[in-house]
């Protein structure tokens, strides 16, 4: 019957009337840049995250860029991050003239391996960017200890992990900055681009607000070189409608992940493929990513395609192997676990809208492809 990878209509149809009303209200107020909708969303999402400050920005990419700018990252600096992530986590470093230094990942969580991070730190290290990949928090206890001992700020890339937790705290509130994306397919998505920066520090929050508006501290007065990194009022209004629904959508993802784990184990597939675990903390399952070993991923991928089942490879090439970082990045450990993951990972449908029958079909096609 086919199973879509993500069906946004399942999320949008029940709230369509409220979303359109929120958009109409923005038209009535005619405040399209910052203004009351952005301010209200910032208050509401700060309360959801239990963060002192939340600043709406233009995208998840710009959120990371702004965090690095606020820390003064520039030429001659190094920033340690993961090569197994979306390119924005590292190209923001390079855009500021700094050097991305790639540490390897932990093979179970797909997140940064703290030992590899510690080995990658040098006197030139200006920051660490830890990505909470696929909705699971990085080991913030170990990374926080390293950052504290080495005197290095820790930036959390939470683009895939809004609502995830470590030690009872929501990600984005543990490090120096938290950076979020509201790309439409994220757990909380707007209808375009949007992002957020969180921090617990008043001075850093004000620094982000200044930088997102061209470095302006008053009308036509500029204290810093910033940029146009503002969240649109229309997107903020849409996010205000969707934010109260997020916990329900998250529960659906968690239920789908548990069902996958149970059903894959019941068919014995957990002995043939790598099945993701919830791990410590709270996992919000932006993706359900399995490992397909023995070079069978392409056969499984093709079988899903033939059955009209959506799937995706996150990520096919590690960043330290990408041409854009060939001469400007470093990978001291060679990052073998990241490269192995690139050859084995496959994301299965997990978003709201996945039916029990659809999930059974995913698992059946997977089993047949492995047996072929």
User: What's the rounded overall pLDDT mean?
Assistant: 97
Portion in strands: 5-15%
Order of helices and strands: HHHEHEHEHEHEEEEEHEEHHEHHEH
Helix content: 25-40%
Calculate the terminal CA-CA distance, rounded to whole Å.
Answer: 21 Å
The CATH homologous superfamily of the largest domain: Type I PLP-dependent aspartate aminotransferase-like (Major domain)
Q: What's the CATH topology name of the largest domain?
A: Aspartate Aminotransferase, domain 2
Low-confidence stretches: none
Largest sheet: 7 strands, mixed
Structural account:
- It is a single chain.
- With 372 residues, the protein is α/β, with parallel strands linked by helices.
- It folds into 2 domains: 8-245, Aspartate Aminotransferase, domain 2, CATH 3.40.640.10; 247-371, Aspartate Aminotransferase, domain 1 (Alpha-Beta Complex), CATH 3.90.1150.10.
- The protein is 40% helix and 14% strand.
- The protein contains 13 helices and 13 strands.
- The protein has helices at residues 8-12, 16-29, 36-49, 60-70, 88-95, 114-120, 140-150, 202-212, 233-242, 246-266, 297-306, 336-344, 356-371; strands spanning 53-57, 78-81, 99-102, 125-131, 154-157, 165-166, 169-170, 177-181, 195-199, 216-218, 221-222, 288-291, 345-348.
- The strands form 4 sheets. It has a 7-stranded mixed sheet with strand order 1-9-8-5-4-2-3, with helices on both faces. It has a two-stranded antiparallel ribbon with strand order 6-7.
- Strand 10 (216-218) and strand 11 form a beta hairpin.
- Helix 3 packs parallel to helix 9, helix 10 (246-266) packs parallel to helix 13 (356-371) and helix 11 crosses helix 13.
- It is globular.
- The two termini are 21 Å apart.
- The mean pLDDT is 97.
């Amino acid at each position: 019957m086919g199973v879509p990878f993500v069906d946004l209509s399942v999320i949008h149809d029940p709230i369509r009337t409220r979303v359109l009303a929120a958009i109409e209200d923005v038209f009535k107020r005619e405040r399209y840049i910052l203004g009351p909708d952005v301010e209200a969303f910032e208050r509401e999402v700060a309360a959801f995250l239990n963060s002192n400050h939340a600043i709406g920005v233009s995208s998840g990419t710009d959120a990371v860029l702004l965090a690095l700018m606020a820390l003064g990252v520039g030429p001659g600096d190094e920033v340690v991050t993961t090569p197994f992530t979306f390119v924005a986590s590292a190209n923001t470093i390079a855009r500021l003239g700094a050097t991305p230094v790639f540490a390897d990942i932990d093979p179970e969580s797909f997140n940064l391996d703290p030992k590899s991070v510690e080995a990658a730190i040098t006197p030139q290290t200006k920051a660490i960017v830890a990505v909470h990949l696929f909705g699971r928090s990085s080991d913030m206890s170990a990374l926080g200890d390293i950052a504290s001992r080495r005197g290095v700020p820790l930036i959390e890339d939470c683009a895939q992990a809004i609502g995830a937790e470590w030690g009872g705290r929501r990600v984005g509130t543990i490090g120096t900055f938290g950076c979020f994306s509201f790309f439409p397919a994220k757990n909380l998505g707007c209808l375009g681009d949007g992002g957020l920066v969180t921090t617990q520090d008043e001075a850093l929050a004000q620094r982000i607000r200044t930088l997102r508006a061209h470095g302006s501290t008053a009308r036509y007065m500029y204290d810093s070189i910033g940029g146009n990194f503002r969240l649109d009022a229309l997107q903020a209004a849409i996010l205000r409608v969707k934010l109260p629904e997020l916990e329900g959508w998250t529960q659906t993802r968690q239920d789908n992940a548990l069902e996958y784990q149970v059903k894959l184990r019941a068919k014995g597939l957990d002995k043939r493929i790598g099945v993701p675990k919830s791990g410590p903390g709270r996992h919000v399952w932006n993706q359900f990513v399995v490992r397909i070993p023995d070079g069978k991923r392409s056969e499984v991928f093709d079988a899903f395609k033939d059955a009209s089942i959506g799937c995706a490879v996150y990520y096919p090439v590690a960043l330290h192997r990408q041409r854009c970082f060939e001469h400007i990045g470093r990978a001291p450990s060679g990052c073998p676990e990241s490269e192995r993951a690139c050859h084995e990972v496959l994301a299965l449908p997990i978003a709201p809208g996945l039916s029990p029958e659809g999930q059974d079909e995913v698992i059946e096609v997977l089993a047949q492809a492995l047996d072929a």
